[in-house]
Amino acid sequence: MTITSTFSDSDAYELQMGRWSRRLAEPFLDFSGAADGEDVLDVGCGTGSLTFAIVRRSNVKSICGLDSAAAYIDSATKKNTDHRIEFRVGDACAVPFPDGSFDRVLSLLMLHFVPKAELAIKELRRVARPGATVAAAVWDGRGGFVAQRMFFDTAAMLDPKGGEARAQQFTRPMCQPGQLEAAWRAAGFENIHQSTVMTRMEFASFEDYWAPYLGRQAGAASYVATLNDDQRTKLRNHVRQAYLDGEVDGPRSYAAIAWAVKGTVPR
């Protein structure tokens, strides 16, 4: 499987996305559910945000966090102290488990980075038992991701390549209205429900907001890394004006909305 946005450094992942994954995990679990005694699979687990949230709220029998990035799995494993949790390197398009292995299969903020998302969804269904819930969420980048939209709209205004980067970011698989639901229907799930889940991205200052873009890894940061010093300074100054928005520098809070879908495997 080729993931179109992967950090080689777990610290960079934490700064740019991990801290928000932890926040989104709670409303996503409110939507997807989690129950005592279940065997659970977390596909695209990153550094373990959803996995650890599950064991905090449910007395599951076991949970496996699966991710293609060894750096994420290593980071998650080092943080783990719960014998019910296992973290493994694995491919979402070739999940390394037999058919019908899990009572609940979840995926948070992963499917929009998989070019063959339909194949990954088939795998999520394959390893789920009859009657199991399979649920996923992806960012609504175009319509509900205010902090990132502010960056990419500014970049697109200043630079044609910024426009190309914006187009790539906002045309990822499964991120448009109805796409997740349609994919779940095509995969043969029953009792399908699509909704949105929301958290907020809170920053202490503009420097806190800007720091992830200097990491040179994945997404917006990889675009910034292509700029020369003058271009980067110009972009920073314009994005800063958008962040300040007529007020002094300081804390800001932006809504971050994700599309979510769940369904059950036919019995």
Describe this structure as you would to a colleague.
The protein has 267 residues and is α/β, with parallel strands linked by helices. The protein has a single domain, classed as 3-Layer(aba) Sandwich (Rossmann fold), CATH 3.40.50. 43% of the residues lie in helices and 23% in strands. The chain contains eleven helices and seven strands. The longest helix is centred in the N-terminal third of the chain and has 23 residues. It is globular and about 60 Å long. The relative contact order is 0.17.
Regarding CATH, which class? Alpha Beta
CATH third-level topology: Rossmann fold
Count the helices. How many?
A: 11
The CATH architecture name reads: 3-Layer(aba) Sandwich
DSSP, total strands: 7
By CATH's scheme, which homologous superfamily applies? Vaccinia Virus protein VP39
Q: Order of SSEs, N→C?
A: HEHEHEEHEHHHHEHHHE
Q: What fraction of the residues are assigned to beta strands by DSSP?
A: 15-25%
- On the 0 to 100 scale, the average pLDDT is 93
Task: Please tell me the total number of domains.
Answer: 1
Q: What is the global morphology?
A: globular
With strands numbered from the N-terminus, the spatial order across the biggest sheet is 3-2-1-4-5-7-6
Q: What gap, in angstroms, lies between the N and C termini?
A: 29 Å
Detail the poorly predicted runs: 1-5
